[in-house]
Amino acid sequence: MIDGKYTQKRWFWILALGWILTACAPAPEPDVSAEPFTLTIAHINDTHSAFDPVRARFWLQDEVIYNEFGGHPRLLERAESYRAIAERENQPLLFLHGGDAWQGSAYFKLNEGRMNADILSRMGIDAMALGNHEFDLNNRLLNAFLDTINFPVLAANIDTSADADLRDQQNLKPYVIFAFDGFEKERLEQAPLYPDGRQLVGVFGIALDDMPNISPNTGDVVFFDMVESAQATVDELTALGIDKIIAVTHVGHAVDVDIASRVNGIDAIVGGHSHTLLGDFSNLNLGHGGEYAARVMNPDGAQWTCVVQAGEYAQAIGRVHLTFNAEGQLEACEGGNTLLSNDTFYSENQRTDETRLDAIDHERVVDFIEQQANIAIVSEHADLRAHIDSVYKPAVEAAYGEVIGMAAQGLRHVRRPGDGASDEHGSEVAPLVAYAQYWWAARDEVAELTGMSVDFSLVGAGGIRMSIPEGEVREGDITLELLPFSNFLAVVPLTGAEVVRLLTDVINETLPEGSHAGKFPYGGNLRFAFDELDPGVRGAITQIEVNRGTLADPQWEPLERDGTYHVVMNSYNATGNDGWTILYESQRESSGRVDLAYVDGELRAFPVERIVSSDGRLRVVYADEEIACDREAVICNTDAIAVVEFIRQQWDTITPLPDPTVTLRRAE
């Protein structure tokens, strides 16, 4: 078996040698123990350091029930119940993670992956896909994470041989092989030369092939085409005599479906990245995320692939049962996602003793949940909960800092309007973040630094990592959890035509079911409407206006296509990352952009000369000094500081903005 250091050329020769040896070797005796085989896969993805439960709600007919979902102790409790069932029935089981364990909470900001390694290693995970957020820090810290965990991370379409930190890492692999004897399993370093009576399952990983465009901190890791690499890996595993093959991926549900339609021989894809909670949750008024365990026909027309994914933020766990015949062909796949609820329920978002359901109503909710297949009341794993609370929680609580505002009711965040039973206007949080960043950059002291009067702002929904719960909001809620990526703000001159093209291109990319919706744009001091024309394919901006008044007294004027506007956004999107490609194109030759960061406590402007592209990576070239975010004296998270200051000075009673700024009208 090869490890994560291979290159494509080396891979070719390894495969060629394997074929030669296979041709020359005596034919193995048939495996007389071949028989039908059933494999259960428990799976999670995009857990994003959600070690504590997430405040949530669901509907019991017309009644809103406020509760909590998930958290890693609750995930572990459910996973162990699945393991206990499999052991009792002597049935094979794998527990897979679809990537993006990193980032997302104050726990990660304070511990930089160390806590993730600790907690995940206690959960019995068999393998994990390499997610884009695993590159959020640097490859030295990623390497330390890989050294610490007790399960492999998989990506068959990467080459780490040129990267100083990852070139010798043995726990980053293209694939692993599991040998099953009923419930008992062994992870093998290589496929056995002859059958030994055990059932073999190959699990390989696929990472985003445009990773450098999404995660700029990938070092010298090289990424290869997803489809070509997937087919080559399936062919290699098949040549080794393995006929049951699982892909664990972090590329998004729509891409998983595309891979399944273009690659022969993958039995199941366990996905991540798009945060897609597959299944029909309309019984809870939580929408329909698409078919769970959908069967996608392979290009040969003879085989099909089962595709699953399990939502986000450790709120749900999926379980799929795969049935193979004696020839190793997949005959059936079935299962579903389950939202994991606590057993304390409230009638209002303000969770007090007065709003807590009494015994009769509580029992009514419990009875309802017990009748549903996609939600369950699950206790937290006591030992893991105690470990988190004693080892990690005290430092996190201390880091949140002072109270800056109060939310009388929760503000909900979704990435794309219409997701999660939201309306056509989508997130309540993203427009608030966008307006706060506009307000901060439009102040006189900032305008004097940049030489530009800001007109409006744009934010990508994926940069906002949580809803805002009711109650006190502390500074750390914003800087550690809501906007944890430490991006500095940038003011970018754009024409009205470029703004319309940006919005149109990016929204079109988010229309397909299961697409990566983190790039979906929201505006501050800007409002627009987008009408979908061809379902899941394309649409058009039908209205776009800039506010020339105030938040309380808006004066909306049409955006002029030939006018020039000064737009504030975070540096990640301003560089053209995550599909905001027009930003790169508009600054490729020259840029009037100005970036903003604090140096020695003083806000400073950093003019940008241009943006260059090399090996799929976008890099900012500064006119003078570049921003050194790794220096202790430099504070780069002006994206979060702007929101903190807006709440503190202008919006300490935190509510949604008075008027919607985004309208997405889907075609019927």
Automatic annotation (TrEMBL):
GO cellular component: outer membrane-bounded periplasmic space
A biological process term (GO) from this entry: nucleotide catabolic process
InterPro entries registered for this protein in UniProt: 5'-Nucleotdase_C, 5'-Nucleotdase_C_sf, 5_nucleotidase/apyrase, Calcineurin-like_PHP, Metallo-depent_PP-like
Alphabetized Gene3D superfamilies for the sequence: 3.60.21.10, 5'-Nucleotidase, C-terminal domain
Positions of the Calcineurin-like phosphoesterase domain: 40-276
Pfam families: 5_nucleotid_C, Metallophos
Keywords: Hydrolase, Nucleotide-binding, Signal
Protein name: Bifunctional metallophosphatase/5'-nucleotidase
